[in-house]
Design brief:
PaaA, binds Phenylacetyl coenzyme A, mainly alpha, Aromatic_CoA_ox/epox
Length: 312
Amino acid sequence: EDAEKQAAFDARIDAGDFIEAKDWMPEHYRKTLVRQISQHAHSEIVGMLPEGNWITRAPTLKRKAILLAKVQDEAGHGLYLYSAAETLGTSRDQMVNALHTGKAKYSSIFNYPTLTWADMGVIGWLVDGAAIMNQVPLCRCSYAPYARAMIRVCREESFHQRQGYEALLVMMKQGTAEQREMVQDAVNRWWWPSLMMFGPADKDSPNSEQSMRWGIKRISNDQLRQKFVDATIPQAEILGVTVPDPDLQWNEERGEYDFGAIDWAEFWRVVNGDGPMNRERLAARVKAWDDGAWVRDAALAHAKKQATKKEA
Ligand code: FAQ
């Protein structure tokens, strides 16, 4: 019977159909989605920390309002994605526990420190830019609840990218020499970590082949990274900044940029918990969870009281 269900599932995937929460699906497909969606949710939640760090220090009321809205959007994306993962039969408690015990990953990018105000612009431009490149194809992911979530998330991400680029444009075109240097320094620090967001090279990506076959991933890690470089370099030229890669060069024949080798040892070090901010990020999340225990307890007590009132 399972073989029959499996064959029907495969046929739907091959036909480009979307799978809904109540449809039959192979266990491995379910597990892969829980892994990816929950890690995506964790990334949004941990991703609030580097920028949250600058809300009180934004240079103007306008910048503060924008940054506050952006960080709130990230919270929304995280909660929305946890809900999408819950449709697959996992619980919020299980997912949060996996993050807090170091069993679940979150994006390597959020383990770097935000040293200056220019980092806020560069995160919007490069980090949200990379996130959009990766997430637009996920709007066509074969698992429909995730695909639907991605459509809304991508709309907000494009506002995030634009606000970052605009903040940098102001610093580069109207700012002082010191501000321009600050932007260049931030680009130097965030460029390579942004390229790492797309994950290991295709040949070293254990999950890619199966996820591509299932239509979870539609474009490979390396292809997305290339598209990101090609889209971003012209923007850097308009800004008037350079990227810290001596091997970057337009390849006329391929119609794409060639770029230098990524430091994969650094990538795996950060992914495996030993980046500049890993311990601090995780500790901040665990503390927030512990500090919020009374709210969860109070909400539960209230719900119980309401339930007994109805019975009476
Ligand atoms: N960091 O076999 P693959 C955002 C792990 S954007 C850490 O290629 P897969 C918005 C990977 O999980 C950032 N770990 O894996 C925002 C796997 O380990 P596992 C979040 C990484 O899943 C902006 C192992 O390496 N976006 O939050 C990374 O097929 C600004 C082998 O890799 C998403 O999560 C990495 N960079 O492809 C918020 C998008 N790369 O799980 C605030 C959805 C790989 O087997 C401010 N996710 N690993 O233990 C995806 O598209 C995919 O999961 C990939 C990885 C492409 C990230």
